[in-house]
Batch of 2 targets.
Target 1
Amino acid sequence: MDPISGLLAGFEVILTWQNIQFIFIGSVIGTLIGVLPGIGPLAALSLLLPATVALPPVGAVAMLCAIFYGSMYGGSITSILVNIPGEAASVVTCLDGYAMAKQGRAGAALGMAALGSFIAGTVGIVVLCLAAPMLGAFAIRMGPPEYAALMLLGLACTILMIQGSALKGAIMIGLGAWLAAIGMDIVTGEFRFTAGSVDLSAGIELLAVVIGLFGVSEILLNVEQSARGMAVKAKLSNLWPTRADWKASWAPILRGTGLGFAIGLLPGGGPVTASFLSYAVERRVGKNPETFGKGRIEGVAGPEAANNAAVSSGMIPLLSLGIPGNAVTALLMGALIINGVQPGPTMMIDRADVFWGVIASLYIGNVFLLVLNLPLVGLWVQLLRVPYAVLFPAILLLALVGTYSANRNLFDLWVMLGFGVVGWALRKFGYELAPLVLAFVLAPLLEQSLRQSMVMSPDGAMIFLQRPLAAVMIAAAVGVLLLVVFKRKTTTLVGGTA
Amino acid sequence: MTITRRGLIATGAALPFAGAAMAQETHPARAALNAIKPAGYPREPIEMVVVYPAGGGMDITGRVVQRFFERVTGERSFVNNRTGGAGLVGHTWLATQAPSDGHAVGIIANLVISDAARSQGRWQVSDLDHIAHLNAEPLNLMVNADGPFKTGGLRGLLEAARARPGTIRVANVVGGYYEYLIEQLEQASGSRFLKVPFQGGGPGITALLGNNVDLAFGFFAEVRGHMQGNRLLPIAVTGRQPTAFLPETPTVNSVIGRDDVNWGVSRWIAVPKAVPADRKAWLAAAFRAAVADPALVEEFRNLGALPDPALNSPAALNAAVAQMAEAERAYLVASGRVPR
C-alpha cells in the first residue's frame, strides 16, 4: 500500500466517534501528566496499560500514543512557569523558559512551546508515513560503533553548553557520569559503587534525579528566598509570541525537528536526549550565546520541537520493524502484543488497519493538543497567581506521588529528596545542573556502545575508522572540542555565573 | 499504612477490570475452589508482583494469568511491576518484605535462581514456596537471513568459528543463561567467540537484524515477527526436545552431543514461605485451574510458551525448582565460577 492510500485507509479506521474519544482522552491525560512533576509518560502508560486490554487495538494504542506526545506538550508548562520540569524531556526548557516567565513573557514561551511541538509533531508524522520502512532499515544498521561516536558528539556538545566556569562544568559532567555508573556493569555483571545495597544495584532512577535536582531544589530556593522576603514573582504581560519571537523561532523549530527526528529514530535515543542536544545546538548556532539561559525564546522553541519530533520518529522502528527504541515504545509494543497485534515488518501488511490507523491518529492527536493547549495558555499563566505557599507544597506532593508511581520504590523518594538538597547546594555555589543530567543520560550509552564496539572488533579501536558513519561523527566531535578550546582561549577563561 | 497504600494502587489498577470480571459467566472450576476457600480471605485485591517492566514478555504473561485468575476465582487482583536491578529488587521484596497473609504473590521465572545467588546471602530460593507452574519455553538461536551463516545451520557456524577463532560475534547478556550457552558453544567448537554484551535479549536481536552480531538468542515472541518477515532464521533451540513452535529446528544438544544445554525460561507462581497453608492451597488450586483453561493455553501459545503437565502439583514444581537450581549450580561449579 502506498503512503497516501494507506493514510486515507488509516483515517477511515480512526475516524470513528469512539476512537476520537480515545485520542481526546489520551491527549488530556498526556497534558496532565506532563504538567504534573514526577509522573512521566512511562509511569502513566504502565498504569494505564491494563485498562487497554478491554479496548480495540487501534483505539488502545492511539490513546497510549496520545498520552506520550501529550506529555511532551504538557511538560513545558511547569518548566516555564515555576522552573520545575514536568518530565525529564522538559528539563532544558526551564533554562530559558523560566527566565522568560520572570520577564513577564511566560505566555510567549508557552505559546511557542505549543506551536513548536505542533509543527515538529506534524512534520515528524509526514516523514514517518512517507519513509517509515526505509528509515527503519537505516536505523538498525547503526551498530555500537556508530552509537559510541554519536554519544561522543553529544558529550562534546554538552561541553559547549557550559556557560560559566569550565572547571565547574567539568565537575558536573564527571559527577553525572559517576552517578550513572552506579549499578550493574553490563560487561562483567559486577556491581559498581553499590556498597552492597540492593536498592543501588538497580542504579539511580533518572526521574528521581531530575525531579530532585530541578524541582525540589527550586522549591527549597524559593522557600529560602520567601523566608527572607525576596521571592521573585513572575510578571504577566503579553500572552502571545510576538512577530520578533516568530522570526527568532522558526529556524530553531526546524532544526529541533530535524535533530529530534534523527535522535528518536535510533534505538536508545528518545525525547530526553533529543531536547538536550537541540539546546546545545541552538546555543552553538545562535547569536550572542552568552544570553542563553537569560530568556532566549530559541532555547524553548528548539528543544520543545525536538522532543515531539523524537516521539513521532520513535514510532518508526516500533511500527515498521517491531523494535522498541526506548522504554516508552517498549510499553507501546507490549500494548500491541496484549491486543493480539505482533509489531514487526509484517505488521504493515497483516494489520494494515492498525499500522495506518495509529499513524492517522497521530495527526488527529497533535491537532487536539494544539487546540487544547493554546487557549489554555491564559489559564496556565493564572497558576502564577496562586501563592507559592499553596503552589509549592502541592507541587512537592505531586512530585512525591509521581516519582513513587514509576517503580513503587520508596528508595526513589529518598533519592529525589537527596538530590533536591544537592541541587540546592550546587545552585547556591554557581554550578550548572544541565551538564550533570546530560552526562547522566549520555555516559551510560557511551560506555555501553564503546565497550560493545571494542568487544565486537577484531582490530580494536580501528573499528571506529573502518565504519564511515562512525568516523564522520568522531571527526565532528573532535571539531567541536577544538572549537571549545579555541573559544575558551580567545574569550575570558573563567566566569562565575550559574 | 501498608494496607491503605496497596489498596490505593489496587483501586487504580483494577477498576478497568471490574466490569469485565463481573460480565463473565461463573467459571466451571469456581465451585470446587470455593469449597476450599479459607474464611475471610482474600479481604482485599491480591497483588501479583512482576519483577520486570510493564510491556515485557514476563509482564504480558503476568497480565494474561491475572485475567484468568479473576475469571476462575471471581476475586479481584492486580499486576504490580516492582522493577529494578534486572529483577533483583522485586525478587528481594518477595522473599523478604512481601506480606505473608496471601495478598501478595509473585509471577516469577527461573531467573529468580541467579538473583538469589546475587543477593549475597540475604535470601534464598527456598524462602519462597513455588505453588503453581505456568509455562516454559526454550531459547532460540537465531542468525540473520541475509548474513554469512544463513546456510549450514549451527554446525556450519561452529565450523566457521573453529576455522577463524575470535571472529564470530554473539550477543550476550552477562551473568546468566546467555553466557552459559555461549560457553557451551565455545567448548563445542574448541574456539572463542566475540561476546558482545547487551542489556537484554531484545537489543541483541536488534543488533542481529542490523548485522552487527552474527548470532543472537531470543524467546519465540521476540523473534516470531522477524521470522515471518524473513529477516531472521532459527538454527537451533535449547532443551531436550525440539520446540513445538519450530519442529524442524534441531536442539543444540543433538548438534553438539551434550545433554545439559537446557537453558530456557520457566515461569511459575511463588508466595512467601510463611503464607498459611490453607491460603497457599487455595491459591495453588486457583492458578492450576486457570492454567487448565484451554483459553489460557491458547493465549500462552500465542506468546510462544506452553504449560508443562508434569509440573502440575506444588510438590512436583518445588522439586523441579530445586533441580533447576542444582543444575545451574553444577554448571557454575563445573565452569569454575563457584568453588566446589
Target 2
Amino acid sequence: MKSVPDLVAGGIFVLIGGAFVVGSLSYELGTPLRMGPGAFPLLVGAIVAALGLAIAVKGLVAGEVAEFGPIPWRAIAAIVAALLFFGFTVRGLGFVPTSAVTALLTTLASKRVRLLAALAVTGGLTVAATLIFVVGLQLRIPLFGPWLGL
Amino acid sequence: MDLLDNLALGFSTALLLENVVYCFIGVLLGTMVGVLPGIGPTATVAMLLPITFNFEPVTALIMLAGIYYGAQYGGSTTAILINLPGESSAAVTALDGHEMARQGRAGAALAAAAIGSFVAGTVATVVLAVAAPPLARVALQFGPAEYFSLVLFGLIVSIALARGSTLKALAMIALGVLLGTVGQDLYTGEPRFTFDQRELYGGIDFVSVAVGMFGVAEILRNLENEAGRTALVSTVRNLWPTREDRRRIVAPIARGTVLGSALGVLPGGGHVLASFTSYAVEKRVSKRQQEFGHGAIEGVAGPESANNAAAQTSFIPLLTLGLPAHPVMALMVGAFIVHGITPGPNVIADEPALFWGLIASMWIGNVLLVLLNLPLIGIWVRMLRIPYQVLFPMIILFAAIGTYSLGFNAFDVYAIVFFGLLGYVLIKCGCEPAPLLLGFVLGPLIEENLRRAMIISRGDATVFLTRPLSAVLLALAAGALVLAVLPAIRKRREVVFTEDD
C-alpha cells in the first residue's frame, strides 16, 4: 500500500462508474444508428471505472507515499447538520428561525468557537440574510413558518 | 465600419443604468471574493445564479462576468498584502508583490497591478470584439460530428493546462459527464438514474454541484488547519508609482497583455498559465534578474496584465463556441441556457445586443475596477481582518438560501451536502473539482452531438475521422493528451504550477 489517496480516489471512480454501468443496462441500449438512453452512460461509466482502476493500480505500483492529513470531523458534522437542518425546516419554521439555527450550527464547526462570538455571528448573519434575501431580493419565503403557530 | 456600429450597440446596452449598476455590483462582489481567501468566484457565482434568473439575460451575464474578472483584480490585492493569493492566478503576483509590500512599497505594487490590469483589460476587450465574430462564422459551419470533437478537444486541453495528475483529471471529467446523464433522456424522455425522485427528472442542478464542490468542500478544507491570519501591511501609502517605476512597467505591461490575450483563448485556465509564463518571460528579458523574487515591479506588472488580459479573452471560446474555459464560465453556460439562449456561434447573430453589451460592459467594468481598487484600497485592507469564523458561516448560510431559492425545494440543499462531501473526499485524494464541473456542463452536449452525428452518418462511427475539421480537432485532442502525459513536459508543468497553492 503506497498511496492511500490514490487507492481511495480509484475506488470511488470504480464504484460510481460501475454503478452507472449496471444502471444503464436496465435501459435500452439501441443500435449504433439509434443509440438508446442506456448507451452513452454505459460507455462513459465504463471509462470512469477503467480510469479509476488505472489510478488505483498506479497508486499501488508507483504512487508516492502520501498521507491523508487531518480530517476535520467536527467541521464535517456541524456543517452537514446545519445544511440538513436548513433543508428540513425552512418550510416549516420560516426564514428567520431556520437561518439563525443554521448559522449557529455552522459556527460550531470551528474548534476556536466562543459562545459570545458565535451568538454575535448568528445574530448578524440572520439580520443580514433577511435584509438581503427577503427584503432586498424579495425571495418568497415566509419569515416565520406554520410550525410556530404564528 | 461594422466593428464601430457593433461597439456602439454594445455601449448603448451596457450603459443602461440598470446594467451599469449590476456591472458595478458584479465587480464589487468579485473584488470582495477575490480579496478574501477561502471563497472563490466559482462558489460566489453559483450561489448568486438562482437570484439572477429573474434578471434580463444581458444584465445577469454582465453581473456574472463582472464577478469573474473582478475576482482576478481582488486576488492580486491579497497576494501583495498578505502573501496569500485569493485566486490561483495571483500566486505569481505574491512572489514580488509581497516582497515590495514588505519593503514599504505596497502602494506602488498595487498601482502597477491595477494599471497593468486596466491596460490589459482594455486591449483584450478590443481583441475579443475583433476576433469573436470571424470565429463564430467558422463555428456556424459545424455539424454534430465537429461539435462532438470540439467539445472533446476543449475538455482535454483543459486538463493539459491543469495541474496535478492527468489520470485523475481525466477521471474527473468523465465523472462529470457521467453525472450529467442523470435525468430524462433527450431523445426518448426516459428518466435515467433518477430513483423515482421527481427532483432528478430535470437532471442534477449544476448550481448544487458547483456550490457543493467549490463552496462546501473548500470550507471543509480550510477548517483542517485553523491558523490565525495576520495582516502584515496595515496602511498603504504612496499609491502613485514613481517616475522610475512608471518607466519600468511599460514594457512588461505590453508584453503581458499580448501574452495573456493569446493564452486566454485556450480552453481551461489559460489565465493561470498566462501569468506564470509572463513572469518567466519578464525574468528572462530583465537586466535586473537578481531583483526578481526580491521586489521587482516588473514581476508584478507583467503577470497581472497577462492574467487580466487572459481573463477577458477567455470569453472568446465561450461566446463563439459555447466552450467554457473556467468553472465560472461553465456556470455562465448554465445561465445562458436558463435564459433560453444556447451559448455558441448563434449568440452573436441572434442576440447582438446581449453579445456586444457583454463585451462593452467588460470595459466599463475595468474602469469601475480601477476606481474601486485604487482609491478604496483602505476598505479592502480592512476586509482582510474579517476572521474566518465569521466568513464561513456566512458562506454556508448563503449557499443554503441560494440553492433553496433555485426551486424552493429542500432537495437542492441536500444535493450540496452530497456534492460537498464527495468533493471534499476527492480533493483530499488529489482530484481537482474544476474538470468535473466542466465535464458536467458539457456532458449533455457531447451526448447529444454524438447521437445526432451517428444518426446522420447512419451508424457509421468513422464519420468523426472522415470529416476533416472533426479529424483535426480529434488529432489535436490526442496530441494534447500525449503532451500532458509525457514525463518531460509533466516535469515542466509541475515547476510551473508548484507555486500554485
